[in-house]
Structure formats: C-alpha cells, structure tokens
Amino acid sequence: MSDSLAILIGDTSRLLRRRFDARARRLGVSRAQWQVLFALSRNEGINQAGLAEALDVETITVGRMVDRLADAGLVERRADPADRRAWRLHLTPPAHPILAALREVGDQVMAETLAGLDAADQATLTTLLTRVRGNLQQPAPVALPLAAVAR
C-alpha cells in the first residue's frame, strides 16, 4: 500500500508540474524561471542564499537563474544595506503581469486537477496533504543502518 501511495503522490506531482509547465511555456517562461518568480513574489528582498534554500537548489544554480531573469528585465539585484557583499533580489514591474498570468494558469490547472471533487472532497484532500507534508517537515527519525535491517 505505501509503495503504491508514494507512487501515486509522485505521479500526481509530476503530471501537475508537466501540465503547468506546458502552459507556462506558452508565456515564454521556463520551470526554473516561474519557480524563482513565485518564490520571489513570496519573499521579496531575499538574498540568493535564502532563495536557494527556499527552492532547494544550490546557490550557484540560483545565481544563474537570477542572471537570466535580470537579463530579461524581470528581477533586479539591490545592494543589501546591512552587508556590502550581499545583494537583495526584487521583482521588477514587468514581472508582475507575468506572475498574474502564471497565477491564472495555475488556477486553470488546479480546476482541471480537482474536477469531479466537490468542496468537501477538496477540503479533505487539503487537510490530509497538509498533515502529510507536516509529517515530512519534522526531523527524520534516526534510521537503522541497512546492514542491521538485512539481518
């Protein structure tokens, strides 16, 4: 049961991302770009290290993504007043209509995803997935070495 549930959750996530990606590409935005834009919209003024942590990628990877978005005029780096060596990241005005369009795409994809589920079903699904996510956000229990399990 747990294997099939894990596969179901993984497949659902992959299919949801794939559908959203296909629609976002029509707006000229890659997955990496929309992820950075969404993260910045929720954390305006964050530094690159914080953004990398929020996206669960390496700082150098975020740096490259931000470079491309800055070249496109969607993100700007501003000097950090508290640290001359650091930069704070901000969305530029042209990024906001793209974010609005991406949110509309997200709303459409979620409506398709949840088709056939009434409000109570959707609330239950949200409650259960929130609980599952919370479980996974807790520190992992100490795992037994594989050799000990194999005995």
Uncertain spans: none
Order of helices and strands: HHHHEEHHH
Nearest-integer average pLDDT: 91
Percent of residues in helices comes to: 55-70%
Sum up the overall morphology in one term.
Answer: globular
Q: What value does the Rg take, in angstroms? A: 19 Å
Euclidean distance between termini CA atoms: 24 Å
Largest sheet: 2 strands, antiparallel
Number of helices: 7
Strand order of the largest sheet: 1-2
Residue share in β-strands: 5-15%
* DSSP strand tally: 2
Alpha-beta classification:
mainly alpha
Question: What's the short story on this structure?
Answer:
By secondary structure, this protein is mainly α. It has helices at 2-26, 31-42, 48-55, 59-71, 95-113, 119-137, 146-150, and strands at residues 75-80, 83-91.
Structure notes:
With 151 residues, the chain is mainly α. The protein contains seven helices and two strands; from the N terminus they run ααααββααα. The chain has helices spanning 2-26, 31-42, 48-55, 59-71, 95-113, 119-137, 146-150, and strands spanning 75-80, 83-91. A two-stranded antiparallel sheet has the order 1-2. A hairpin with a 2-residue loop joins strand 1 and strand 2. Helix 1 (2-26) crosses helix 5 (95-113) and helix 3 (48-55) crosses helix 4 (59-71). The protein is globular, with a radius of gyration of 19 Å. The chain starts with a helix and ends with a helix. 13% of the residues are buried.
